[in-house]
Design a protein that fits this description.
By secondary structure, this protein is mainly alpha-helical. It is built from 29 helices and no strands. The relative contact order is 0.15. Helices cover 72% and strands 0% of the residues.
Length: 562
């Protein structure tokens, strides 16, 4: 963890009373004997590196489950027993009928469930808290997986995939926020990029499990067991989260100050009276004070659509856009249809499955590179590197696709590996990290619900159109994705601020300073003179206090006017 400190309680609706009291008064309250006893009683089971590792493991299990659920259908679509039960997914070689659409639909409908789950987090996320939302999401996924495993009709499979997606949507819009809010600023990027790697780990093991069960051609276990195995990951996640503390930021936002301070202390592995722990806590409380508009009782959902000093709408929109960008790169063209893509290149059934599994393995290994780079070189350079590489790769795939020869088919297969590598380094984990970093605490739950909904909306679009697109325009589909990847490059360069090395509350200061000076947040984010959250200089930038330390009661009026 990095900075923190303390202020008096916040009401249940998230409105801070700190804005009307000085830091001195808050410090007195925090240093009282009763408060110290309450902090001690609220201490989590684990602390220090052990707690950080446990949170990473549970969050990672959630994303392994996410990846597994994404990849498991890839090879099952052409499994003999799956085709016997669901003949609607069998596409005739001449492309006649609507089977290509039905095949895409049973894959893509999962994204509709995820979209509903993500949007439901607009209301349940802040109400239940991060931990309970993850538990609910896990339970729904278990129910959905059981129904998928027991499916005997196309309609039942479609409904079951929607239910599974509902749970996954809740989890994917909650887990990144939970992990980001419990991570130190210096290592937050690498910790959450590990989650991105675990998505590919889940995809990889789903491919290999599909391949292993491919040989059980005389039983429906060929496809039922691979689908059912996701239940194991869901149960591990549900069990693990029960031993972990709630996010300190969510606790502080809901007035549970002693618990929040106890969790921050445990995450840092230091006493709650330590200066660094106090600084972090003060930064969180002051962010709540600034975002609460000094008594404005508007809901976090409404505040997403405000700007002013907090720049809420701009920040939430960046999260929505970055999630959209991840999907329009065309990555799920490969993730969901890897086996089919390799078969279209003239590779036989068994070899196509082996290459698809190897592709998933290489995808996982490439994602590990981003973990080492994310906090060293920052978010923007990796996003730009990935987008440029993806554009070039899609152009080459289109060129080679227009030439029908065995040599170009082999080269195209290699380029699918290359595309995965660029994506894994630049965009895989980034779009789960960036939306959680870029928005303020008060709107984090609804903003991440919107951004995750964006992911699933465009995911559905890409997965739904891919099958019919290849049937209709063949290799020209790659030209579409090349253009979309090229479009991403200037948008990232001109509009995406850097978040590396800053605490979540520091980003409030970056956007407020950019607003006060009338300059781009991108330029401010690259400066080295931005004061840290919790400092008097930051308080003045945020409009919490003047130079003499007094609370600025006009801040609310200026915010509303903006």
């Amino acid at each position: 963890m990095s900075r923190t400190s303390c202020s008096p309680p916040v009401s249940d609706d998230g409105v801070s009373t700190t804005s009307r009291r000085s830091k001195t008064q808050a410090d007195v309250a925090v240093n009282s004997a009763d408060f110290d006893a309450e902090v001690a009683a609220s201490a989590p089971y684990l602390s220090g590196p052990a707690l950080t590792a446990a949170i990473a493991c549970v969050a990672g299990t959630g994303f392994t489950l996410f990846g597994y659920d994404q990849g498991v259908m890839s090879a099952l679509l052409t499994a003999k027993q799956f085709e016997n039960v669901f003949p609607q997914v069998v596409v005739p070689k001449d492309g006649s009928g609507n089977h290509a659409t039905l095949q895409s639909f049973v894959v893509a409908i999962y994204e509709i469930g995820c979209l509903i789950g993500a949007l439901s987090n607009l209301w349940v996320g802040d109400w239940l808290g991060r931990r309970k939302t993850i538990v609910v999401g896990g339970i729904i996924m278990v129910i959905g997986a059981i129904l998928q495993t027991a499916s005997y009709s196309y309609a039942q499979l479609v409904v079951a995939r929607i239910i599974t997606g509902l749970g996954n949507g809740l989890n994917t819009s909650t887990v990144p926020s939970y992990h980001a809010e419990c991570s130190p600023a210096a290592r937050r990027g690498s910790l959450i990029m590990i989650e991105g790697s675990l998505i590919t780990f889940g995809i990889m093991i789903s491919y290999w499990i599909d391949f292993a069960f491919f040989w059980i051609s005389g039983s429906s276990a060929q496809w039922r067991v691979p689908i059912a195995l996701q239940i194991v990951l869901a149960l591990i996640m549900i069990a693990g989260i029960s031993f972990l503390p709630e996010s300190p930021r969510w606790l502080a936002k809901h007035g549970r100050d002693a618990e929040a301070l106890a969790v921050i202390s445990a995450l840092d592995g230091k006493p709650h009276t330590d200066a660094a722990v106090q600084q972090t806590y003060h930064g969180i409380r002051e962010a709540i004070a600034a975002e609460s508009h000094y008594g404005n009782d508007s809901s976090p959902l409404r505040e997403v659509f405000t700007n002013g000093r907090s720049q809420n709408f701009r920040r939430a929109f960046l999260g929505v856009v970055v999630q959209c960008f991840q999907q329009i790169t065309g990555i799920n063209l490969i993730t969901y249809y890897a086996t089919l893509l390799f078969e279209r290149l003239g590779i036989d059934d068994v070899k196509a499955r082996i290459i698809a599994a190897a592709n998933g393995t290489e995808y996982f290994l490439a994602s590990l590179i981003a973990i080492a780079l994310i906090d060293r070189i920052g978010r923007r350079p990796l996003m730009l590197f990935g987008a440029i590489g993806q554009t070039v790769t899609m152009v080459l795939l289109a060129v080679l696709g227009s030439i029908d020869s065995s040599g170009t088919q082999v080269a195209s297969a290699v380029l699918l590996f290359v595309f995965n590598s660029f994506f894994a380094i630049g965009w895989l984990g980034m779009t789960w990290l960036y939306p959680a970093e870029i928005v303020g605490l008060r709107i984090r739950a609804p903003a991440n619900a919107f951004s995750t909904a964006s992911n699933w909306t465009f995911n559905f679009m890409v997965v739904m159109v891919t099958g019919p697109a290849f049937n209709s325009i063949s290799w020209r589909t790659y030209i579409v994705f090349a253009s979309l990847n090229a479009f991403i490059i200037p948008i990232v360069y001109f509009f995406f601020p850097e978040t590396a090395g800053r605490s979540l509350e520091d980003m409030d200061v970056v956007f407020a300073l950019a607003y006060n000076e009338g300059v781009s947040p991108v330029k401010v984010s690259l400066r080295k003179d931005v004061p840290p959250a919790g400092s008097p200089e930051a308080d003045e930038i945020l409009g919490i206090s003047g130079r003499d330390g007094s609370v600025r009661e006009d801040a609310s009026r200026s915010e509303k006017a903006a």
